[in-house]
Amino acid sequence: MSKYLEQTIKDLRAKNADQPEFLQAAEEVLTTLDPVVEAHPEYEANAVLERLVEPERVIMFRVPWVDDTGKVRVNRAYRVQYNSAIGPYKGGIRFDPTVNLSVLKFLGFEQIFKNSLTTLPMGGAKGGSDFNPKQSPHTPGKRCSDQEVMRFCQSFMTELYRHVGPNTDVPAGDMNVGGREIGYMFGQYRKIVNEWNGVLTGKGLPFGGSLMRPEATGYGCVYFAENMLATKKQNLKGKVCAISGSGNVASFAAQKLVTLGAKVVTLSDRSGAIYVKAGLTLKDIDTIKFLKTVTRGELADVVKQIKGAKFFKGVNSWQIVDKVDCAFPCARQNELNGEDAKYLLKHGCKLVAEGANMPSTPEAVEAFVSAKILYAPGKAANAGGVATSGLEMTQNAEHISWTAKDVDDKLRQIMRSIHDNAFEAAAKYGHKGNYVMGANIAGFVKVADAMVAQGV
Fold this sequence. Notes:
This protein is α/β, with parallel strands linked by helices. The protein has helices spanning about 5-15, 20-30, 35-40, 40-45, 50, 100-115, 145-160, 180-195, 215-230, 250-260, 280-295, 340-345, 360-370, 380, 385-400, 405-430, 435-455, and strands at about 55-65, 70-85, 90-95, 125-130, 170-175, 240-245, 265-270, 270-275, 310-315, 325-330, 350-355, 375. It has 3 domains: about 1-50 and about 435-455, Orthogonal Bundle (Glutamate Dehydrogenase, Chain A, domain 3), CATH 1.10.285; about 55-195, Rossmann fold (3-Layer(aba) Sandwich); about 215-370, 3-Layer(aba) Sandwich (Rossmann fold), CATH 3.40.50.720. Strands 9-8-7-6-10-11-12 form a 7-stranded mixed beta sheet, with helices on both faces. A 5-stranded mixed beta sheet has the order 1-2-4-3-5.
C-alpha cells in the first residue's frame, strides 16, 4: 500500500476511534484504491482522500414529540451530508435504536460510491434517528401507533426541512422508513415551505412517487446477480437461493428470483429464520409481504401458513440450509460473519449479492474473495433502489409519470451498466473478476475527478 493511503488510514483511525462501523466501511474502500491512487498522483496533490473521508456537513438535532398518553418524548436525529461533487446529496433516512453517528457516516460514505456507480448525478448522504416505531414507549410489546409515528415524523421534518431541498439534499426511506413515514414527512415539509417539489423520494403514487420504487432494490440485486452469472454463461434458473431479511428488499428479491425459476429457501427477521426446502411460492412471499407491511408482525406469526416451512428462533438464514447456490444478504450490516461464509462455501455457494449495506463482515468478504466466487458488494448490487429514486427525481422535475415497464427497463439497464463498469474497472487495474475492487475504483474515480476539477 502506498504511503499516502497508509497515512490516510492512520489519521482516519486516530480521528474516529469511537466509530467502528464507519472505520470498517472507509478502510474497506481505501484498501482497494492503491492501483488507482498510484496511477493518478493528482489525487494526492489535491488531498482527495483526506477530503473524501470527512463529511461536508453533519447536522445533529433533537426531536421532541408527544406520545398517545400525552407524555413528551425526545429522540436524537442526524443528517450526514457527505459529498456533493457530482450532484445533490442523496440517501435514505433510518429510524432504529441502532442509529448513531458511526452508523450514519458508514452508510453515507457507502452512498457516495453507490450513487456514483448508478451513472446518475447524485451525491452521498444518510440520516435518521434512534426512534423505534416497532416499540411503543409506553406499552411493552406494542408498536407505536400511526398517530405517534405521524407526530414524530412531523417533528423530525420541522428541523430537517431547512437542510434539504430538490437541488440540495433529497432523502429517501431506509430501515423502518417506508411509504407511511415518507408521506408524513412530505406533508409536513410541504406545509412549512409552502411549495410542492421532489424533496423526498419513495413517495406515494398519488403525490409524485414512482412505480417500481418498492421493488427496485430487491429486483436490482437480482439483475446484478444475473449479469454476474452471464460472465460464466449461466443463469438463475434452478439455483437454490438463501435470503436474509423479510422487508422490501428481501421479499422483492425473493419474488423476482422465483419468477426467474430460482428456488428461494430462506427468509429471516429479528425473531429468527424460516427454511422451506422445496422453495417458497409467490403466494408464500405475498403472505410475508402482507405480514411486514400491513400487520407488521414477525415470521413466527405466519410459519404455519407456509407449507413445509420450519422456523428457527433467534438465528439467521446462513447455517440452516443443506445446499445453497446463491446467497442474498438483505437484512442489515455485519449480519454474515466469517463462520457463516465458511458454511455457505462448504455447502456449494458460488454467488453472493448483497442487498443490504455492508452485511458481510471483513472476515466473510475475505473468505468470498479468496474463494474466487462471484461476490458483489452492496454498493454495487443494491444500487437499484437509489437508482430508481433518481428516476423519481427526474419524473418530479419534469412533472411526468413513467409506466412500470419504463422504470423496470431503465433499472435493468442501470444495473447492467453498474456491473459492466465494475467488471471493467477491476480488469483495467489488474484484478479481473474482483467486484469489490471494481466497484470501489469505478465509484471513486468519478467522484475524485469531479473534486479535482472543482478545486479545493
